[in-house]
Known about the structure:
Helices cover about 25% and strands about 25% of the residues. The protein has 5 helices and 15 strands. This is Putative l1 ele2 orf1-h 1e-20-j 4. It comes from Psorophora albipes.
Amino acid sequence: MSDLRKNTLVVDFSVLPSRPDPSEVEEFVMKQVQLKMSDVKVLQFHNIRHCVLIDMVDKETAYRYQKEHNSKHYMVSNKKKFAIPVYVEDGCVFVRVHDLPSSMPAAVITDHMRQYGVIHSIGLERWKHYFPGIVNGVRVLRMRLTRPIPSYITIQNEQTLVSYAGQHKTCRFCNMSIHPKLRCGEKPPPTETAMQTESSNIINLDDFPTMTQTQQQQEKAHQQGEQQHQEEEEEENEHEPDKQQQVQQCTGYISDTNNITTNGNETSDDSSTSVPIDANNKRRLTTNKGNEMKKPCQGSQGQSGGSNTEIKGRNFWRK
């Protein structure tokens, strides 16, 4: 802020989401502020600050306009109303207090902030872009500072961020100059209770079990799978002797009567003699390589025509 400006009245349009047209600025200054040309020496549009700077004829006139019109008139932007600050540029700065409850009275804030300088006014800041026209909870104090304000202060046990143009930024914990990317030695370590409370508010631990719980579940499932596999093997071993017994049993054959020896003598008959076969026996043939003939198993005993007939496997060849 330049010290060269004297008796300068500022009509601040930077609170608006977008810069107003010159015609809208003229209408506001002439109709709302009711500016008289006889009180004006210089009227200047400031392109960077988005405001109008008016050099008044004397200091008393500038402060009279400030008292009568500061934040008492509105401009509409995006169908929202914004109060326009009108103040004297006299070396004061705008101090923004960010994080206090909206219910905290302005008198409590000004009583605390007087230790840093002279307070000319206090007001509420409004959103410009995201929620145009809605109060955003930031208190704006116009002050002539007598001492620097730290970046973080505490008012009635409520810690808040404070910012203003030309501020020397300080650490939240030690109030010394900020030390980015370095851990502050005054920062208290988080307690176990605070960490548990914070994590319980974010996630449900039942939905995200620890690694130990996950490993226990995997081991339990693996043991159950091994136990089931062992039971299946034991059950299979129990049936293995029955299978071997069935394989070892010889099967009976229905053979040609010309190759049947009865009581040591060969018989010849046109009709074939049938040999009863046990129900549990199956026909089994072994085949050798080449043109070798198939050999039967050693025979079983059967009955034909009410007489005992012995079938000798070693003398029986199937043609």
